[in-house]
Amino acid sequence: MKTKLTDLNSIKNFLGIIFINILLTFVALESVSLVFYFLKQKRFYYTSKNQPQSQEFSKDLEKLGVRLEEEIVERFHPYFGYVMKQGAFPRPDVNLKVNNYGFYSRYDYPFIKKNSNQSIIGILGGSVANDFTINDYIYNEFTRRLKKSPFFANKEIIILNFGVGGYKQPQQLLILNYFLAINQQFDLVINLDGFNEIALANINNKNQLDFAMPSFQHLQPLTGLANNNLSFKVLQSMLDIRQTKKLLSKTMKDLDSCSLALCYTARSLQARHLINQYQEKLKDYEKQQKANANQLFDKNNVINLYQSPSKLDAEKAYDKMISIWYQSSLTMSQVLKARKIPYFHFIQPNQYYQTKRVFTEEEKKLYLGTDSPYSDAIKSGYPKLLSKVEDLRKEQVNIFSAVNVLDGTKETVYRDNCCHYNNIGQNLLGDYISEAIIKVVKDSK
């Protein structure tokens, strides 16, 4: 009996030692995790739990263009090339989602005025135009600036978004004419473009897709799916990317629900690993897509795309893409002038066209990618595009170069290595656009 009690005590002592060691290990790991969090975030973990911890990865995901909650959201459109999937990216807090025509907006189209006090402004362009409009939907800064003018002071300004990522001329021209044809009302139209017309048209040229066709980058995956001619390797790459995104989405949700610093550290490291993995899989997908590019013009395809006879050399290519941009804007201006609707054309700033801007360390590190597929084309083509501004002005087009509007601030204004701006950049651009519009409207009275 005594031996049994001794054995029982020994087991209890042994288990007690194990428990204490586990507890000490946990405390040590939690302490290390707290230090890890503090060094990264410059704040204490337990006092910042009300903030979503996954936000620290938002810049990386944004830079990569990762849509965790969506797969392929582009859809073919018989006139516009492609639009977004209806209902995608819902934001009930600001009444936003992709509308009936495939544009991210508060309103379905055509939007009909409810009263004569409403002033409808249409904004066309690519992702920069889309972002500019969304920024105003959320913060209303641009509309507030416009209301400083007596012309808009007592108006209910309705902003309609007609911008989608990757759009370039003549897509804006075609979209404008389409909506005019179905009686969409406009009191003013803004076209915010320039970057895609050079950067994405250059990629079209490299792949022998005609300059006037929509972006090769956006069309190729859609046509491959529609034509059912994607190779096994491309399909496998797409599946790998989808699986990685699912794991990443789950990890982000788990990260936000962590109550311990140790959980945060584990999920944070896992998220970082998955983001790196996503980058590698994306590179593999792009490699497979390039190998599959020749199938874009297969005669048996159900999607008919005009193939250029050959790749043009740089000078001829820039001349052609700029000619399309020039004629499209001129036509937009003429069509709207005939209807007495003011048209304003703004050329967007970007980090690859050299101005007097002094980049921040963050911008140099994150947003000036040496491997950007756009930088060389912009450096060579943007000066040629800007040289046509005066010609458009002679044709009485209200066109403005906004390439220098970000030069006056020492703060970070970009948010990725393509061409997009953070809120500071958006506000600076909004200031410039609103001031230009107010001045022209005032002078025309």
What does this structure look like?
This protein is α/β, with parallel strands linked by helices and 445 residues long. The protein is 51% helix and 10% strand. The chain is built from 14 helices and nine strands. The protein has a five-stranded parallel sheet, sandwiched between helices. Strands 1-2 form a two-stranded antiparallel sheet. β1 (74-77) and β2 form a beta hairpin. The longest helix is centred in the N-terminal third of the chain and has 40 residues, at 2-41. The radius of gyration is 27 Å and the shape is globular. The mean pLDDT is 83.
Q: What is the average of the pLDDT values?
A: 83
Strand content: 5-15%
- Helix- and strand-based class? alpha/beta
| Biggest sheet strand line-up | 6-5-7-8-9
Biggest sheet record: 5 strands, parallel
From the spread of the alpha carbons, the general shape counts as globular
- The termini sit apart by 108 Å
Helix content: 40-55%
> H/E series, N to C?
HHEEEEEHHEHEHHHHHEHHHEH
Please report the total strand number as a whole number: 9
**For the CA atoms, what is the radius of gyration?**
27 Å
Question: Mind sketching the topology for me?
Answer:
Layout: H1 2-41, H2 58-64, E1 74-77, E2 81-84, E3 97-98, E4 104-105, E5 118-125, H3 127-139, H4 141-146, E6 156-163, H5 171-181, E7 188-193, H6 195-206, H7 216-227, H8 232-256, H9 261-291, H10 314-338, E8 343-347, H11 361-366, H12 375-386, H13 389-394, E9 398-401, H14 423-443
Parallel strand pairs: 5-6, 5-7, 7-8, 8-9
Antiparallel strand pairs: 1-2, 3-4
Helix pairs in contact: 1-9, 5-10, 6-10, 6-12, 8-9
